[in-house]
Amino acid sequence: MFKVLKQVQDYAKESWQAAKYIGQGLSVTFDHMSRRPVTVQYPYEKLVPSERYRGRIHYEFDKCIACEVCVRVCPINLPVVDWEFDKKAKKKKLNHYSIDFGVCIFCGNCVEYCPTNCLSMTEEYELASYERHELNYDNVALGRLPYKVTQDPMVTPLKEFAYLPKGEVEPHGLAKGAQRAGKRPEEILEEIEAAKPKEEAKPEG
Amino acid sequence: MAEEQNNQEKAKAPAEKKPPAAKAKKEKPPKLEDKPFDEFIQQHYLPALKEAMAGEGIDDVDLAFVQQGVPIKGANSNELCWQVIGKWDNGDRLFNIYFPDEDIAGQKAFSSATYNNPPSTLESFMIDERRVNLELLVMYTIQRLNAQKWLTRN
């Protein structure tokens, strides 16, 4: 008799749990019901790309040693490293370097593996052109200082949703100096460094 | 293909080094790099660079070795810095190589400009090169100017 009751009890419990989990999962969806769409008036307002954004690649000619590692790690061997051996100086002489951004998939392997850090990612993402060959950047174009949303006087930079303070949905009219939810990397570092001497002291004691 | 070429060069280099007579001769004159900074630049670097540029087809280059402020926005113009200034095409092409440490082995910087405009960015020069000698200085200068597409067409 009790066995039947237990079955009923379990069934009720599991139904309640299932309903709870479905509700939890949908809470993100339901959260959107209280949000209004945010319109970024694009050429006049632009979103600030997140950190570690992979935009156009910047290249510093002087640091390049023509090792061709960027070519090897590239999924399609895209960078063109044109060098010749200079007999007089016994050194590789780098003539030209180019990356075609019409073909590049911005995976960032070249930047990651470059031994001299002469390649770096920028936040520049506006790479439209009327002709695809214009996207083949040579070392002069790759060496130009990148465009930044926050440095353009004609553009109002707006924070992306993840960078807004807790409970905030609208990036327009945000209070100056408003911080994103959670700790900033500097604060985390400070905490780690504050906790360090204690950890070192423990094994000694 | 480039690697093959490199290997060939490497194979050639030891063969050239074999005769000991050539080595003994080299040791006699003091090393160019050990000469005083001014003398090295004035008497060795500038003529060698001029010759190398003539080899690239630029005959009207005007090279000067002066001490003056860095002509870049944001730099202190009262802070004097030794620099090699190269000009050609009536000043349409201008490049500066800065030696802030007054030493060829010290820090070096490069800037370039066209059509009498002031240069906009200061770049490092030979930042990853530990060895500094006349050939390398000339080679890196020519390489940098070539990278600016000033010596050959793209």
Automatic annotation (TrEMBL), chain A:
Residues 172-205 are annotated as: Disordered. GO terms for molecular function: 4 iron, 4 sulfur cluster binding; iron ion binding; NADH dehydrogenase (ubiquinone) activity; oxidoreductase activity, acting on NAD(P)H, quinone or similar compound as acceptor; quinone binding. It is a peripheral membrane protein. It is found in: Cellular thylakoid membrane. It comes from the Bacteria. It is an enzyme of class 7 (translocase). Residues 55-84, 95-124 form the 4Fe-4S ferredoxin-type domain. Residues 183-205 have a biased composition (Basic and acidic residues). Pfam families: Fer4_7 (PF12838). Keywords: 4Fe-4S, Iron, Iron-sulfur, Membrane, Metal-binding, NAD, NADP, Plastoquinone, Quinone, Repeat, Thylakoid, Translocase. Its EC number is 7.1.1.-. The keyword Repeat applies. It catalyses: a plastoquinone + NADPH + (n+1) H(+)(in) = a plastoquinol + NADP(+) + n H(+)(out); a plastoquinone + NADH + (n+1) H(+)(in) = a plastoquinol + NAD(+) + n H(+)(out). [4Fe-4S] cluster 2 binds at residues 74, 104, 107, 110. PANTHER family: NAD(P)H-QUINONE OXIDOREDUCTASE SUBUNIT I, CHLOROPLASTIC. Belongs to the complex I 23 kDa subunit family. NDH-1 is composed of at least 11 different subunits. This is NAD(P)H-quinone oxidoreductase subunit I. It comes from Waterburya agarophytonicola KI4. The lineage of its organism: Bacteria, Bacillati, Cyanobacteriota, Cyanophyceae, Pleurocapsales.
TrEMBL record, chain B:
This is DUF2996 domain-containing protein. Residues 7-19, 27-36 have a biased composition (Basic and acidic residues). Pfam families: DUF2996. Residues 1-36 are annotated as: Disordered.
